[in-house]
Specification:
Blueprint (H helix, E strand, L loop, with lengths): L3 H6 L9 E6 L5 H14 L4 E5 L6 H8 L5 H5 L3 E5 L7 H15 L3 E5 L1 H7 L8 H14 L3 E7 L14 H4 L2 E10 L2 E10 L9 E7 L2 E4 L7 E2 L7 E2 H7 L8
Parallel strand pairs: 1-5, 1-6, 2-3, 2-4, 4-5
Antiparallel strand pairs: 6-7, 7-8, 8-9, 10-11
The protein binds adenosine-5'-diphosphate (ADP) and magnesium ion (MG).
The site of magnesium ion has 4 residues, from α2.
């Protein structure tokens, strides 16, 4: 992924030919992670495709530049294509075909789909029923050919539950990362957790991260002073202990 602390959490990184899903609410950095994933691939000589369904053209190149990553040159060199697939009333097959042609043109080793919800929305309503099945087939075919896929999906944080995605995730993904907001010290902060990895040996830690001018940066080690981070409203164990000291033994 090109994010050292995150790659460590993933047990070394995402395996080639894996399908990785990033699930989280708006503004948690799903597109930032997709940008970094593609940029790191290019740095390692792996051409890429970004299929964008939600942002304005140039959004991706501009965000990358903000992060100090150059996505412009690879596009000029034919090593990267950013496909802006706005609502076009396309059929699933036409959209998939466009993607596959782009993948073949650049010889892509990495594909980012941002986002699955946007992808579904871009299709003509009559075609949406076929979406999941076609997507499943396409992801299977591409990962089978050794292409690594990062998809994003927007999920709502209810602050009481931790839903992963409304998609049948076990079918679509080998690896799953969940981003979410948590309230800590009167601030809305962000945490990341690796839910599953095909490779198996991933970190179970819930880690705080920030988005800076270098992109997503995983900061603190595991937050051991808090409990119930997955509720979004964690409990500070230290304060709890101060507020309610252990009762003394009666004499
Ligand atoms: N250069 C930057 N420096 C600091 N924060 C940034 C920068 N670029 C984007 N962000 C932050 O990243 C967040 C949006 O990330 P994004 O990847 O678009 O989220 P998502 O795709 O999950 O909606 C915003 O909160 C924004 O403030
Ligand atoms: Mg986004």
């Amino acid at each position: 992924m090109g994010i050292p602390e995150l790659d460590k959490m993933l047990g070394g990184g995402v395996l080639e030919g894996d399908s990785l899903l990033i699930a989280g609410p708006s503004g948690t950095g799903k597109s930032a992670l997709a940008t970094q994933f593609i940029a790191e691939g290019l740095r390692q000589g792996e051409p890429g495709i970004i299929a964008v369904f939600e942002e304005r053209p140039n959004g991706y190149t501009e965000r990358a530049a903000d992060f100090g990553l150059n996505l412009k040159t690879p596009q000029e060199q034919g090593k990267l294509e950013i496909l802006y697939l706005r609502p076009l009333d396309l059929s699933v097959d036409e959209t998939m075909q466009e993607l596959l042609e782009a993948i073949a043109r650049v010889g892509a080793k990495r594909l980012a789909i941002d986002s699955l919800v946007g992808f579904e929305m871009a299709l003509a309503p009559g075609f949406r029923a076929d979406f999941r099945e076609s997507l499943y087939r396409m992801i299977g075919a591409l990962t089978g050919a050794g292409i690594t896929i990062l998809s994003t999906v927007e999920v709502e944080d209810t602050f009481t539950a931790m839903p992963f995605s409304h998609y049948a995730i076990s079918f679509l993904t080998d690896d799953l990362i969940r981003l979410r907001y948590v309230e800590i010290d009167g601030q809305l902060r962000k945490v990341i957790v690796v839910v599953k990895m095909r490779g198996g040996n991933h970190s179970k830690d819930i880690r705080e991260y920030v988005i800076t001018n270098k992109g997503v940066v995983v900061i603190h080690p595991r937050q051991t002073e808090f409990a119930r981070l997955t509720t979004g409203l964690p409990e500070h164990l230290g304060r709890e202990a101060e507020a309610a000291p252990e009762p003394k033994a009666t004499q």
